[in-house]
């Protein structure tokens, strides 16, 4: 851990698309064991920042360090292997795989995923796979999705796909979970269920960084809260603190 | 059964075996990993040329009466030329894959592959010293023919046996890939490469595995074919041939090795052989042209009405937990990673 005790530290991050500065010198850190909220008006650069952290986009400039190691510019699969797992704003299920298979794909350190291991035959990888199947079933039970185990993920409803997105992220055994609007487009009762799940996970010690538009949700879940506008961090602190910030009000009103 | 019929049936069986092997290779690339390899036929061709050259022996210069020129001739005993064909198919896939399947959206990837196929035909046709240009290679000795003393029809059936043996080996290879966690991860990459990368999967590496294995298998299929028909020229591997295999894989069932086998039986064998039995009518060459129309219409009909094919991809179900089987504890956060 760094002196600040942060799990993830973003320093002076820039990302340009042509002439557009989507992220323009953002700096913030994510403390362990909490849900950090990332809010801001549309076009503030939140999703871009998340994509850069996750390795889906290369930063134009700046530094990202995780557990005091520089992970700036690593490709996304290497970022993921270090325990930073992201979910997508638009459901990203493996449509022609079943729900259970979607979860199995996410399990880290799978035997039989390398060609030489596959050639060793079922006896080599089957025992571990069975353990993974049981683990996936625990997750399904916890999220009330056991009945959908053998359903093709592409056939799920929008809300169920959001749950799958979250379960798949958890199956990957993350140390830091990056959530891009995990409740986007779901009905209010399911949104409340997702909220409770996130609180439970946080209670169990999982660190999360969450982009969310619904300020009431942010207020209930997130501490600290980071406010971005026009590619910069304009405020951070508890929700009560950022609410009192004049600049935040301006950004949301003028946005 | 008359000898003529035996010849016909054994020939069709060898063609079927070659097509089944090729379709398994293409299915691994397209059906399982989602790679749109419109250059598939050049990997079969590379295998065929390799096997031919390694069986023919050193080229005889034209001044000494040699009628075909090529590089790297050798007299390798069976089955080495077939294995070498697989290696060359794989190496060519590694080369083409290094620029064709990295960082490209699938529609661009398909375009690159089509262009590679056209370039390859053009190079082989014009570089006459490479593998004898447009005339191609001929009089490739048949494997084992000088060792075994069989009647022509007996040899036909021996070759059917060799083809069947190679089919079993290739099936084993594709089966261990598609039935393992590797196959599942490849299908995940096919469905959503960004999500797969976000879960720690090296997408480029995984696609390369499927691409190279498909190249190896295509090369082997070409080797069997050339050892059987004893000749190979650019006319045997024009880019439309790739679409026959694509149609076969789509008709049979993408992602299902058994379905693909049925597709290889239906499209390149049943439908294309059937046109032989249609009495000649219309202008000369009409029936041959009809073959291409049949393939195109089949592909369209299946994509519209039956996109998952005759035998669709299997839904994988997992048996319930055995008694006393303990699940791994669920830990959302690993504190000390």
Task: Report what the structure shows.
- The complex is a heterodimer of chains A (255) and B (337).
- The longest helix of chain A has 21 residues, at 122-142.
- In chain A, strand 7 (176-180), helix 7 (188-203) and strand 8 (207-211) form a beta-alpha-beta unit.
- Chain A has helices at residues 46-53, 76-81, 99-106, 115-119, 122-142, 158-171, 188-203, 215-221, 239-243, 246-254, and strands at residues 8-17, 20-30, 35-39, 61-66, 69-70, 84-86, 176-180, 207-211, 225-229, 232-237.
- Chain A folds into 2 domains: 8-93 and 158-254, Rossmann fold (3-Layer(aba) Sandwich); 96-155, no CATH class.
- Chain A has 255 residues and is of the alpha/beta class.
- Chain B has 337 residues and is an all-alpha fold.
- Chain B is built from 12 helices and no strands.
- Chain B has helices spanning 3-32, 40-56, 80-100, 106-126, 128-131, 152-178, 181-191, 193-198, 203-229, 240-252, 257-274, 286-305.
- Mean pLDDT of chain B is 89; it is low at 332-337.
- Classes of the chains: A alpha/beta (255), B mainly alpha (337).
- At the A-B interface, helix 2, helix 3, helix 4 and helix 5 of A face helix 7, helix 8 and helix 9 of B.
Please tell me the CATH architecture of the largest domain in chain A by its name.
3-Layer(aba) Sandwich
Radius of gyration of chain A: 19 Å
CATH fold type of the largest domain in chain A: Rossmann fold
Mean pLDDT over the full residue set of chain B: 89
Query: Helix and strand string of chain A, N-terminal first?
Result: EEEHEEHEHHHHEHEHEEHH
Count of individual beta strands of chain B: 0
Poorly predicted ranges of chain B (pLDDT <50, ≥5 residues)?
Answer: 332-337
The gross shape of chain A turns out to be globular
Mean pLDDT of chain A: 92
The CATH superfamily of the largest domain in chain A is known as P-loop containing nucleotide triphosphate hydrolases
**Total of helices of chain B:** 12
The assembly state of the depicted protein chains is heterodimer
Overall SS class of chain B: mainly alpha
Main sheet characteristics of chain A: 6 strands, mixed
Helix content of chain B: 55-70%
Residue runs with pLDDT of under 50 for 5 or more positions of chain A: none
- The number of domains of chain A: 2
